[in-house]
Amino acid sequence: MSRIYDCADDTARKDGVTDAASAVRRGDLVVMPTDTVYGIGTDAFNPTAVARLLETKGRGRDMPPPVLVGSMRAATALVDDLGNHGRDLMEEFWPGPLTLVCNATPSLSWDLGDTKGTVGVRMPMDPVALELLKETGPMAVSSANKSGQSSAVRVEEAVEQLGEEDVAVYLDGGETDSEVPSTIVDLTYAVPRVLRQGAVSIEQLRSVCGTVIGELRKPKKRTGDEADGTAEPAADGTAEPAADGTAESAAGGKTEAETAEKASEGRSSGGDRSDD
């Protein structure tokens, strides 16, 4: 049976974070609040635990989870190259609802799924999550719901979907601040590209980076994940332009759609598109 801690109580919060950290080190699953929705997570460097996380959500290796960190320093240790704008984006929007997809450090001993050598990293703005992450180090974290179902903004909703058999600890941080997922930006190419629009707007991104390629989507039937704003974008990069407009990029005068499609050809960046 799961152990549930009310983090509104200081003593329960301290005990809960300690218990959850021990569970993560054992390779168990825990549920915690974030600044977007509740997340289910485990040790990012334990392949068996990550596989259990995906199984519990009902997902395959083709949808690898992002990695949450407790500091920018922890993030840079996971990333081989932040590109031209990664550090500026971290300093402007972290902690906060921005996931950055970067080339992962090749020497890392982990298996998050079919990431094609990339990793999605984020530092959440939630005190309970940050306390836990500073105890455990990087965690693989996905939204605390069954695939195709609504994201959980209260711990009771996470318990209802995930049950008490597969999750060792639930940290109850009350209702989360927002149902809007994090914005996902791909930094693996010269021009940053939005893979999913979320809490950080493209205008905010452009205020830091200048040119940013808007989100592109392939027309397809809406699923449960799409209905709650947590869908995975097309992996092949072929899609219609997003509604935010497609001004020409700085890359040789090509349109954003052309540049993004070329950049995405033949690969799928790591990071769960359902998020956290």
| C-alpha termini separation | 24 Å
Biggest β-sheet: count, sense, barrel? 11 strands, mixed
Class by alpha and beta content: alpha/beta
What is the overall silhouette? Answer: globular
Q: Considering DSSP H and I runs of 4 or more, what fraction of the residues is helical?
A: 25-40%
Structure description:
The structure is a single chain. The two termini are 24 Å apart. It is globular, with a radius of gyration of 18 Å. The chain has nine helices and 13 strands. The chain is 29% helix and 19% strand. The strands form two sheets. Strands 1, 2, 3, 4, 5, 6, 7, 8, 9, 10 and 11 form an eleven-stranded mixed sheet that branches. A two-stranded antiparallel ribbon has the order 12-13. A hairpin with a 6-residue loop joins strand 10 and strand 11 (193-196). Helix 1 (10-25) packs parallel to helix 5. The protein has 276 residues and is an alpha/beta fold.
Strand and helix map with partners:
Blueprint: E1 3-6, H1 10-25, E2 29-32, E3 39-43, H2 47-57, E4 67-68, H3 72-78, E5 79-81, H4 86-93, E6 98-104, E7 118-122, H5 127-136, E8 139-143, H6 155-162, E9 167-172, E10 183-186, E11 193-196, H7 202-209, E12 216-217, H8 224-227, E13 240-241, H9 256-264
Parallel strand pairs: 1-9, 2-9, 4-7, 6-10
Antiparallel strand pairs: 2-3, 3-8, 4-8, 5-6, 6-7, 10-11, 12-13
Helix pairs in contact: 1-5
